[in-house]
Design a protein that fits this description.
heterodimer, A: Glutaconate Coenzyme A-transferase, 9-stranded mixed β-sheet, 3-stranded mixed β-sheet, 5 helices, globular, B: 234 residues, Glutaconate Coenzyme A-transferase, 8-stranded mixed β-sheet, 3-stranded antiparallel β-sheet, 3-oxoacid_CoA-transf_A (chain B)
C-alpha cells in the first residue's frame, strides 16, 4: 500500500533532528508539524516569525498573527518576530536547517518546479525560490505521479523552475529517493511497495 | 518638525503624482496601510507602480486601488486571491513584475540603505534570472538585483511617538520596515500615537528618521484565512 498524506508527513518528520530551525510549505508539509513528537523543532514562518504555534482557539484569532499561508496561528514561549528582510536574510544565509516543500515536478539533478504552469493562472512564487536557494536541506514531499498517472519524478523538469539543483531528498507516496551523482538513489520504499513498482512509476534515472 | 497629521489625505497632501513608485508594507492583509490606501484612492492619482508583496483582495487593501484602475504596475511575489487583479492582468491593462519574496524585501532594504544593487542566489537558473547579470562568487552563481528607490512609502505600525519612532505588533511587522526605508518620503499610519518618552528606546523597531509623516486611526484589520482549533483538542 502506498503511503497516504499523513504517512508521508510522518515519514518527512523523521528528517528533522533535535534543535533544527525548519520551514514547512503549504499542504502535506504543514502536516509534518503533527509528527515531530518530542523533538525540539522551531518552525519558521517566512512572513517574520520563529516559533510558530498551532491554530488559535475559536474566538482567540489575532489579525496581527498569521503564517505565510495567511492563516491565523499562535505564538509560543520561544517565539520571536522580525521583518521580511531579516526573515529572508536567515533563509538566504543558510540559518534555516531544512525546508519541506510540495512540488509539481522534481528532476534527477535536483531541479524543482512548483510555482508555475504556463498557460494557467500564475499566482507567484512567494518565498519558494528564496527558500530552496538558501536553506541547508530541501526535502520535497509529493505524490509520485500526477492524476493522469504520469511520473512527477523526471529526467528533466518540463515546467518553469523554482530552483536549479536544489532538492536533496524526495518523499512520495511510494517511497524515499535521494538526489545523488548521476541520478536518484532509492532510500526506502513504502510498506508493501516494491522497488520495481517504484522504478516503474519513476521517469528519472535510478542509480 | 511636526510629523503628526490629522488624516490620510492631509498626510499625503503634496506627495502624490501620476506615474510615481509607491512601496507599501504588509503581508496579505496583515499590517497593511489601510487608511493611506483609502487616502490614495480619494486623491485620484493614477498610473502608479506599487511595490508590495501582495495586491490585497477584491475591495480591500490594494484591491481598492485596482478597482479604481489607479495602479499600472505591481511588483509582487504573490498575487492570488484577487479576481479583479487577474482580470486586469490577463487583459493586459495591468503590468506585473514577479519578485521572489526575499528578493523584494531585500530590494527595498537595499534601496533604503543606499545600495543600488546586490547579488543573490535566489532565482539562479530560473526565469527570474533572465536578462540579469550573473556573477560567480566562491564557485557559486549569483544574480544581480537592484535596490528599490520609491517616491513614497506607505506603512502601518502598531504604536508611534510623535517623532515617528515605530513599534510593530507580531507578524504585522513583515514588509513594513523595509518598505518604509526605501521611500524618499515615508508616511506611517498607526493604531495609537503615544506620549514622547513612553516607548522604551531599546524596543523601537523602526527609528523615526525613516518616518516623515504620521497619522493615527481605526483599522479594520481583516483576517484573510480564519483557522482555529477546538478546545477539546487541547
Amino acid at each position: 500500500m502506498p503511503w497516504d498524506r499523513n504517512q508521508m508527513a510522518a515519514r518527512a518528520a523523521e528528517e528533522l533532528e533535535d534543535g533544527m530551525y525548519v520551514n514547512l510549505g503549504i499542504g502535506i508539509p504543514t502536516l509534518v508539524a503533527n509528527y515531530v513528537g518530542d523533538k525540539d523543532i522551531t518552525l519558521q514562518s517566512e512572513n517574520g516569525m520563529l516559533g510558530m504555534g498551532p491554530f488559535p482557539f475559536e474566538g482567540e484569532e489575532d489579525p496581527d498573527l498569521i503564517n505565510a499561508g495567511k492563516q491565523t496561528i499562535t505564538e509560543l514561549r520561544r517565539t520571536s518576530y522580525f521583518d521580511s528582510a531579516t526573515s529572508f536574510g536567515m533563509i538566504r544565509g543558510g540559518k534555516i536547517a531544512a525546508a519541506i516543500l510540495g512540488a509539481m515536478e522534481v528532476a534527477e539533478n535536483g531541479d524543482l518546479a512548483n510555482w508555475m504552469i504556463p498557460g494557467k493562472l500564475v499566482k507567484g512564487m512567494g518565498g519558494a525560490m528564496d527558500l530552496v536557494a538558501g536553506v541547508g536541506r530541501v526535502v520535497v514531499v509529493m505524490d509520485h505521479t500526477n492524476k493522469h498517472g504520469d511520473s512527477k519524478v523526471l529526467r528533466e523538469c518540463t515546467l518553469p523552475l523554482t530552483g536549479k539543483g536544489v532538492v536533496d531528498r524526495i518523499i512520495t507516496n511510494l517511497g524515499v529517493l535521494d538526489v545523488v551523482e548521476g541520478g536518484l538513489k532509492i532510500v526506502e520504499t513504502a510498506e508493501g511497495v516494491t522497488e520495481d513498482e517504484l522504478r516503474a512509476a519513476t521517469e528519472a534515472t535510478i542509480v | 518638525m511636526k510629523k503628526v497629521y490629522g488624516s490620510a489625505s492631509e498626510a499625503l497632501d503634496g506627495l502624490l503624482f501620476d506615474g510615481m513608485l509607491i512601496a507599501a508594507g504588509g503581508f496579505g492583509l496583515c499590517g497593511i496601510p489601510e487608511l493611506l490606501i483609502d487616502g490614495i484612492v480619494e486623491s485620484g492619482v493614477k498610473d502608479l507602480t506599487v511595490a508590495s508583496n501582495n495586491a490585497g483582495v477584491d475591495g480591500f487593501g490594494l484591491g481598492k486601488l485596482l478597482d479604481t484602475r489607479q495602479i499600472r504596475k505591481m511588483m509582487s511575489s504573490y498575487v492570488g486571491e484577487n479576481a479583479e487583479f487577474m482580470r486586469q492582468y490577463l487583459s493586459g491593462e495591468l503590468e506585473l513584475e514577479f519578485n521572489p519574496q526575499g528578493t523584494l524585501a531585500e530590494r527595498m532594504r537595499a534601496g533604503g540603505c543606499g545600495i543600488p544593487g546586490f547579488y543573490t542566489k535566489t532565482g539562479v537558473g530560473t526565469v527570474i534570472a533572465e536578462g540579469k547579470e550573473v556573477k560567480s562568487f566562491r564557485g557559486e552563481d549569483y544574480i544581480l538585483e537592484e535596490g528599490i528607490f520609491a517616491d513614497l512609502s506607505i506603512v502601518k505600525a502598531w504604536k508611534a511617538d510623535e517623532t515617528g519612532n515605530l513599534v510593530f505588533r507580531k507578524t504585522a511587522r513583515n514588509f513594513n520596515p523595509p518598505a518604509a526605508m526605501c521611500g524618499k518620503v515615508c508616511v506611517a499610519e498607526v493604531e495609537e500615537i503615544v506620549p514622547l518618552g513612553s516607548l522604551d528606546p531599546d524596543k523601537i523597531h523602526l527609528p523615526g528618521i525613516y518616518v516623515h509623516r504620521l497619522i493615527q486611526g481605526e483599522h479594520e484589520k481583516r483576517i484573510e484565512q480564519r483557522t482555529v482549533r477546538k478546545r477539546e483538542e487541547a
